[in-house]
């Protein structure tokens, strides 16, 4: 006869848990995440929060290691709640930062699903929308961009797929050529013609590399393509779920797009910087 993995008492033949114990355990985990999420998004007494979740953990058979993981999940929940209105306020950022520090949560633990990165991105967008140039990204090493004076890097995306629109031309119909008698003993052969010209456009993957966003330009640097696009030379932005498309102000310019993996942030970052 096995013992319950939660309360340690006999659970019955070939059983590892009591139904009531498992239910209490699951409810306790949900309550801990909910409590942390609420305080993390709204602010509150962190010492009281710590005492409350420790009591819930003790009554729900939650060990210390599991409790720490649940606090991290609660912090992630708090980020979701903070972005319910699409924006991150200073108060929400402060509450999340204080919660992180109080429980000694690492950036790695909080970025399992991208929540920490989302917090930073939200703060960057708020800075820009307030008319300030963010300085929240630290870059290790040298970037392959030739920055102009007074130009500052705001964000760098890695492993970005760059796409270009190309025009393909093909010919429909045609002839193998015929011989025409012009005069006695003289023939003129018309060359084979290709027929009607048909043009089609297609988007091709041109390169993969770094995408740098500054207060003045979009920079791209890859193995085969390196260029920059000034914000004041862009006439249209197109949002994608995983990136952004731009149309430069030139008669021969073709649409260009960048797949960053985060269309929401990329589009809002670039379009708002272009208005500074």
- Global shape: elongated
Q: Kindly state the number of beta strands.
A: 11
If strands are numbered along the chain, what order do they take across the biggest sheet? Answer: 8-7-6-3-11-10-9
Which bin fits the share of residues in helices? 25-40%
Parts with pLDDT < 50 across at least 5 consecutive residues: none
Broad structural category: alpha+beta
Strand fraction equals 25-35%
- Provide a count of the helices: 7
SSE order, as H and E?
EEHHHHHHEEEEEEEEEH
Number of domains: 2
Q: Return Rg in Å.
A: 30 Å
| Measured distance between first and last alpha carbons | 71 Å
Biggest sheet layout: 7 strands, antiparallel
Mean pLDDT: 90
Structure commentary:
- The chain has 276 residues and is of the alpha+beta class.
- It folds into two domains: 2-129, no CATH class; 153-166 and 202-273, PH-domain like, CATH 2.30.29.
- Helices cover 36% and strands 29% of the residues.
- It has seven helices and eleven strands.
- The strands form three sheets. It has a seven-stranded antiparallel sheet with strand order 8-7-6-3-11-10-9, covered by helices on one side. Strands 1-2 form a two-stranded antiparallel ribbon.
- A hairpin with a 2-residue loop joins strand 4 (179-183) and strand 5.
- It starts with a strand and ends with a helix.
- The relative contact order is 0.09.
């Amino acid at each position: 006869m096995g013992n319950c993995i939660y309360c340690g008492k006999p659970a019955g033949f070939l059983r590892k848990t009591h139904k009531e114990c498992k239910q209490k355990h699951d409810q306790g985990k949900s309550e801990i995440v909910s409590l942390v999420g609420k305080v993390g998004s709204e602010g509150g007494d962190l010492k009281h929060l710590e005492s409350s979740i420790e009591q819930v953990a003790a009554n729900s058979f939650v060990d210390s290691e599991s409790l720490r993981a649940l606090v991290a999940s609660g912090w992630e929940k708090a980020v979701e709640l903070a972005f319910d209105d699409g924006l991150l306020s200073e108060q929400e950022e402060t509450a999340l930062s204080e919660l992180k520090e109080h429980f000694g949560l690492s950036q790695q633990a909080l970025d399992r699903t991208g929540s920490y990165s989302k917090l930073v991105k939200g703060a960057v967008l708020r800075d820009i929308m307030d008319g300030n140039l963010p300085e929240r990204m630290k870059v290790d090493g040298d970037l392959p961009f030739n920055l102009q004076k007074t130009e500052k890097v705001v964000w760098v995306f890695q492993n970005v797929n760059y796409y270009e629109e190309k025009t393909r031309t093909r010919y429909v119909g045609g002839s193998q050529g015929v011989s025409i008698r012009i005069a006695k003993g003289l023939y003129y052969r018309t060359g084979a013609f290709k027929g009607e010209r048909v043009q089609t456009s297609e988007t091709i993957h041109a390169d993969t590399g770094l995408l740098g966003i500054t207060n003045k330009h979009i920079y791209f640097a890859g193995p085969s393509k390196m260029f920059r696009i000034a914000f004041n030379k862009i006439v249209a932005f197109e949002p994608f779920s995983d990136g952004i498309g731009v149309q430069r102000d030139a008669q021969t310019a073709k649409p260009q797009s960048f797949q960053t993996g985060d269309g929401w942030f990329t589009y809002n970052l670039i379009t708002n910087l272009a208005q500074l």
